[in-house]
């Protein structure tokens, strides 16, 4: 995947990365050669959607609050 300047992303942080949309976004980023940090508290995620076991993924089990 590329940023607005046309240069490829090297690393992306995906919040909610273990959910339906987030897990698919992680997969698309990985397929494009981007390393991914997946942040999710797993409160509604299905264990099969968690990209923990993938090469290029760092998984962080935490809650992000503003």
Note down, in words, how this protein is organized.
This protein is α/β, with parallel strands linked by helices and about 70 residues long. It has 1 helix and 3 strands; from the N terminus they run βαββ. It has a 3-stranded parallel sheet with strand order 1-2-3, with helices on one face. α1 links the parallel β1 and β2. The protein is globular, with a radius of gyration of 12 Å. The relative contact order is 0.24. The mean pLDDT is about 80. This is NAD dependent epimerase/dehydratase family protein.
Please outline the helices and strands:
Layout (H helix, E strand, L loop, with lengths): L10 E5 L4 H12 L3 E6 L16 E5 L5
Parallel strand pairs: 1-2, 2-3
Tag the structure with descriptive keywords.
66 residues; globular; 1 helix; three-stranded parallel β-sheet; alpha/beta
Provide a concise account of the structure shown.
The chain is of the alpha/beta class and 66 residues long. The protein has one helix at residues 20-31; strands at residues 11-15, 35-40, 57-61. Helix 1 links the parallel strand 1 and strand 2.
What does the largest sheet look like?
Answer: 3 strands, parallel
Spatial order of strands in the largest sheet: 1-2-3
Please, how many domains? 1
Q: What is the 3D form?
A: globular
N-to-C CA distance: 28 Å
- Uncertain segments are none
Give the beta-strand count: 3
Instruction: Please report the number of helical segments.
Output: 1
Instruction: Report the helical percentage.
Output: 10-25%
**What is the helix/strand order?**
EHEE
Work out the radius of gyration: 12 Å
Task: Assess the beta-strand content as a share of residues.
Answer: 15-25%
Averaged pLDDT, please? 80
Structural class: alpha/beta
Pfam families: Epimerase
Protein name: NAD dependent epimerase/dehydratase family protein
InterPro entries: Epimerase_deHydtase, NAD(P)-bd_dom_sf
């Amino acid at each position: 995947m590329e940023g607005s300047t046309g240069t490829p992303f090297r690393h992306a942080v995906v919040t909610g990365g273990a959910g339906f949309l987030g897990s698919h976004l992680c997969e698309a980023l990985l397929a494009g050669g981007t390393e991914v940090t997946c942040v999710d508290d797993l409160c509604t995620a299905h264990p099969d959607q968690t990209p923990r076991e993938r090469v290029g993924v760092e998984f962080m089990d935490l809650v992000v609050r503003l």
